[in-house]
Amino acid sequence: MNTDSISKTYAFFIKNTFFILLLSVFSNLSYAQQMGGNNENSVFAQQSAQSAIKFAEALNNHDIDSLGEMTDTKNLGQIVGSALFSKQSEINDFVRGFSAERTRKTLINNLFAQFFNEESNSSFIRMLDEQGALRPLVRIDYATGGHEYLILFLNEEQKVFDFHIASKGAQFSDSLTQATALMISTDDSFFGKMFGKEKINKDVVEKFQRIGSLRQSGQFLEAYKLLLSMPEDMKKQRVMIDTGVGLAQNINDQEYLAQLSLLDKYFGHLPSTQFMLLDYYVMTENNVKVMQAMENVIKRFGMDGALGELSANLYYNAGEMNEALKYAYLGVNAEPNFEPPYWTLLTIYNEQQNYQGVADTLNLISERLYYEFTPESLGSEPAFAGFLASEEYQVWLQN
To answer: Which of 125, 202, 332, 385 is the most buried (most CB within 10 A)?
Structure first.
């Protein structure tokens, strides 16, 4: 790579790092996915759990310096460079520019700032078995009620060199690869790997880079129109659909749903897309697929308080109260200190006028979460009028 190319690489990361965080792209197996202990009792797995706890604490404290120390940007650059370029010399040049101090600082700041946009709390959930390798699962709970899941990829020194973002259905290295390909001049190796070299020509590469430039400048509709003008067989590829999803989010719901429908049609069967497609299934009122996707997410991530609560609410909205109660209980038992599913239990029992269930849930909340309920506090909520007039309330009050 010549000096001009290196300068372009620097310029991209200095000016456009926030943009790369908004792209989701085709997920392909790389050497990055091969590292990780395969025994949860192994020293590596135990160390990884401790590293994930520290990582979550740093997210909660908005401690960019600590997050930077925990991140292996050189390894990340190697993954991205290997996907972008064919020649080892070009890969090496890219890694040197990528891991340079000024590039690294900008990348770290913008990479983790995306999780600081609103009030949230992060926590280590468990070690997750993915393709025979154990990796830490971290959950981010937003004050608005949403959740994000991160699967951390750790090297032997316990530094994060990549992570899977559940809501984007992709690894960060994949998103970064696509963003870089859209913004700097490379040979056709990346696009050739994606679509087949016989389909790649100068016009296609230039269109990709024009899309990146338009999006970076906020011209989402223009970028989207250009994406729709690409060859039909290319528009079915994951890299194209995920880019379309990102653009359409900034245009209107109709185009957003259109891109998600393509993701569902061609890649809805993949584990990586299940969490990402939940909103689409809810928005299109496809209850069957909603429940199937939730089952697949739970199968992949395991049960926790947030997934129990989300499942309970999905079944509640579908009018299946027994299933809603089942999943709310699974949530509170999987994560006793996580509050939301307790309130779902309370709401359902109260709506069903199952006042013994209300009393039992109040006791459970008091026992586990240390809330103190009084006749005054309950009486201030009109919804509990029926419970306050019940025999079950009188028994609960005496105990």
So the answer is: 332
